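Our preliminary data section would be incomplete without showing what the modeling component actually yields. Below, a chain of 410 amino acids is followed by its predicted structure, encoded as tokens that our downstream tools consume directly.
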Amino acid sequence: MSRSLLITQISELVTNAPDGAAVTGSGCFAAIGDAALVIEDGRIAWTGPAGRAPAADEVVDAAGRAVLPGFVDSHAHLVFAGERSAEFTARMAGRPYQAGGIRATVAATRAATDAALRAGLARLAAEMLRQGTTTFECKSGYGLTVRDEERSVALAAEFTGEVTYLGAHVVPAEFAADPAGYVDLVSGPMLDACAPYCRWADVFCEQGAFDADQARAILTAARDRGLLPRIHASQLGPGPGVRLAVELGAASADHCTFLTAADVDALASSRTASPGTVATLLPGAEFGTRQPYPDARRLVDAGATVALASDCNPGSSYTSSMPFCIALAVREMRMTTQEAVWSATAGGARALRRPDIGYLAPGARADLLILDAPSHAHLAYRPGVPLVHAVYQAGQLAHPAALATAPAAC
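Predicted structure:
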């Protein structure tokens, strides 16, 4: 028998749901002051002013803290072995970032046992949860053989339902003289082995990786096997990736660091063909590579849908912290605190085409976090401070292991 839970005395309840209903259009930040919410059967049953809260079986006193939807990290690379701190140190000393460092992680990942890869993934997933991430996407891409890509997505599927096949991360060394042969492998036997574990397919469409024709062929083959497309686009320089993402109806174009006017227009216009293509910005990568930050202000003002994600990976963005990415987006990308929080919650849900998460209103999955702060703004106002007090997934306390509750007053 399920029991209802009332969380009350909330200073600011971020709902992302004006008028108490899920937003199906462009979406916007919304919040209720002096609020409460009720959870039943893993879903939000009620939100509103604390003084009008209905009775529930158990009560949690938020004690003037803010409550937000759980963060939705729609871009992460968590199945890998090794680390690349020496590469990071060299970049900080002035060496420019290039995609070739991926191959070092490929070698380490191929040599690792399943148990080692699983342990690393579990560690990073736990880090994410402690920092308020309740849903994350996880890519392959550090195996680049049929066997290693298949085991990567199989391991990822143990931790999340949002698994992405990224066999087209880079061309591995053994195919350096035959990139067309590798495209055939990625579009054929490797895809066939990985598709049963995946919801998504991705391609690194960039100079030094895969061009537009190769990316189109791979993503078309993946779509024919039931996978939905997303694309790494315009990270290292202007390129065709964003417009290809819109052409293919991809859920997101990720990075978007170097955009042309045509790219911005394409992303903004894609919203008319619902659900459209989300611009997923990954400020951790710019922090870790000293590249220019994406112009989020330009995208928001143009009407594009923007998501924020961690891009957690051992090379360019070794952070699992969505609060850190929110702070970077506000400070370096000219987003407001409200825009950044919306993009890290509802925006990420759009990038994963998940209508059940990213907001807190009746019917939504009860994924939420309680901040040790009175307002969402503290995520940027107090950067680097561990502000997450508690995390709930599907209405169950997931972090910390215990939290004081009281039975409802009779």
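The chain has a mean pLDDT of 95. Residues 114-130 form the longest helix (17 residues). Preliminary results of this kind motivate Aim 1 of the renewal.
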